[in-house]
Write a structure and sequence with these properties.
alpha/beta, nine-stranded mixed beta sheet, six-stranded parallel beta sheet, 22% strand
């Protein structure tokens, strides 16, 4: 059997920002052969083409751990294929799809289906999230351990909070034995009566609002239960000052609690409603909050209270988002603006270094999902994103690969753009074009 290595590339003069090793090298040469990183002085590299990486950043294994691909059952909104294409286009190499599909991903068979679907498409690594409860009805735990055995990386009823404290306690206790995190969509439904943030702008527009307390009271409950059980809790899309207080408390007590924010909550406040007025492109759950809360979220990321930045990619068909504000579904399409949104919100204004922001897109999601990856070292899978940090570009949803074009970032100028994406040594996106050739032996 031949042992000749057949594919490879040399990347010269690139800035490697590797949060897995805490390495930021200003100018480095590196090589990739047959899907893995190799030493830059590997003599076989001279057989392969060279890429000039000067002026670019190389970031390994960006993972968006909160996406909605809508398949099975809601493919008019998004499919696995279009979702994976959107991920590659946005510079993302791994995704964790939420289970609120039709049917719900609440069995080991459906977890296996998602993993195989991702392998067949071959554009991005798929790390499934299984439902916490059967059919996400909040009545009885789903088959958590069997799903975990088949590859589920965490559990969530996202879109629906686990309202029963007793059931949440059971989920945290049980999942801790694997171990796996329980991700909660924190929302007290008895308080969440509105379609946007409760405040002056909602009053001016005559739209019912939801207070921050609707989120915070459940975050506090979850934190207390995490302390009681020793379980691994992850709070999704945090958007409340009091939620941040609960998370800070959990960390001072060494509870196993992590949290995420979205770029749209970092970039926008409820003042966006004044621009878009009654267009439900701004309708998202949790809602865009006040300018003061937006500032608090930015500083919480900087302070280390927030572990992950994730898109909460929630695509919808244009006909659905063209309904009235009351009737339109919640959600923003965010996969293709995740990386640039984080850079624009945090690096461009000088709040954080590129390393610290990239940590929340790479090592942070890996830690929450229990994934291991060594970073840019010889033998590691070559999953990477090349980013042009100087590129300024205007968000045009017509250019999205996702079926969902619903974003209030439309028309906004972002700073920093993914120019190439690679998974296991093969380009999945180059110069803005997704390469749909598929990846053999993706594992």
């Amino acid at each position: 059997m031949s042992t000749e290595r057949t594919t490879g590339v040399r990347i010269r003069g690139v800035r490697v920002i590797d949060p897995f090793r805490d390495v930021d090298s200003l100018e480095e040469d590196l090589g990739i052969i047959d899907g893995v990183f190799v030493r830059a002085d590997d003599p076989e590299l001279m057989r392969f083409p060279a890429l000039d990486g000067r002026g670019l950043w190389l970031v390994p294994r960006i993972v968006d751990m909160h996406v909605h691909f809508r398949e099975p059952g809601q493919t008019w909104k998004e499919t696995f294929h279009t979702g994976c294409r959107a991920a590659a286009h946005g510079g993302v190499t791994g995704v964790a799809p939420m289970p609120n599909t039709t049917p719900v991903i609440d069995t080991p068979e459906w977890v296996e289906w998602e993993i195989q679907r991702g392998r067949d498409i071959g554009l991005v690594r798929v790390f499934p999230i299984g439902a916490v409860t059967q059919q996400s009805r909040g009545e009885a735990l789903a088959e958590l351990f069997r799903m975990y055995q088949k590859g589920a990386r965490a559990f969530s009823d996202d879109g629906r909070p686990v309202t029963s404290s007793a059931l949440m306690r059971s989920a945290l206790s049980y999942a801790a034995t694997f171990p796996a995190a329980v991700i909660n969509h924190a929302e007290d439904l008895s308080l969440a009566a509105g379609w946007c943030n409760e405040g002056a702008l909602a009053q001016q527009l005559g739209l019912p609002g939801t207070p921050e307390a609707a989120e915070a009271v459940m975050v506090w409950r979850d934190v207390i239960l995490a302390g009681l059980t020793g379980g691994r809790l992850h709070e999704a899309h945090v958007s409340s000052i009091e939620s941040l207080n609960a998370i800070r408390y959990a960390k001072t007590q060494n509870f196993r609690v992590t949290a995420e924010v979205t770029p749209h909550h970092l970039l926008l406040s409820d003042e966006a409603l004044a621009r878009w007025r009654y267009d439900p492109v701004t309708k998202v759950n949790p809602p865009l909050r006040s300018a003061a809360t937006r500032e608090a979220l930015l500083h919480a990321v900087k302070a280390g209270d927030i572990d992950v930045i994730a898109s909460d990619h929630a695509p919808h068909h244009a006909d659905e988002k063209n309904l009235s504000y009351a009737e339109a579904p919640y959600g923003i399409s965010g996969l293709e603006t995740l990386v640039a949104g984080a850079l624009t919100a945090l690096v461009d204004p000088g709040l954080m270094s590129p390393m610290e922001v990239m940590r929340r897109l790479t090592a942070g999601p890996h830690r929450v999902l229990g994934l291991t990856y060594p970073g840019v070292v010889p033998g590691a899978a070559a999953d990477l994103t090349l980013i042009d940090p100087r590129q300024r570009w205007r968000v045009d949803p017509a250019q999205f690969y996702s079926k969902g074009r619903n974003t209030p970032l439309a028309g906004m100028t972002l700073v920093g753009q993914a120019v190439a994406t690679m998974v296991q040594g093969r380009w999945t996106m180059r110069d803005g074009e997704v390469l749909d050739e598929g990846l053999s032996n993706l594992h």
